[in-house]
NAD/FAD-utilizing enzyme
Amino acid sequence: MVRHYYATADLDDLEQVEHELEANGITEPQIHVLSEQDGAVESHHLHEVEPVLKQDVVHSTEIGAFVGILVACAVLVIGYLMGLTEGPGGWVPLVFLAIVLLGFCTWEGGFIGIQVPNVNFKRFQGLLHRGRHVFFVDIEQEQEGLLSRVIMSHPRLHAVGTGEATPSWVVHSQDNFKRFMKFMP
């Protein structure tokens, strides 16, 4: 899948684009609107980016966990090389310290991430601060033509790039879950 980004200041036009895409087979989990005007996006019934995903929590937590693994391994190796494992407690204190440091580094990464914009959306901060909205669609290769036709009929949308999309298995899982919930009593 590929993610296509478009910018506009017209939420009415975005609402129409979403309807056209959904009418032609693009599903809700494939479509999102990134905006600083959450109330306006919600009032137009657009699929907005979840607030937690606007921040870099997931990416920074992953980095924190990686650093935590390195620190935990260093503690275990240094403790072994210094002979600390041969004491009365053996490996238990070192393993406990390694687990605590891993947890702390992971938590700290997430804490830092909640304070900064998502790494995938940083390039759009200038547009967002000027009151524009970023519309993005994750599409399969065979949906490229459909997207192009719909976008061409909306001249207020301006392409602002492409990027890595949500994996297709995640999108299909979200679609299946939504269908399941719709038919369950």
About this structure: The CA atoms of residues 8 and 35 lie 10 Å apart. The radius of gyration is 23 Å. The chain has a mean pLDDT of 91. Strands lie at 2-8, 31-34, 133-139, 158-164.
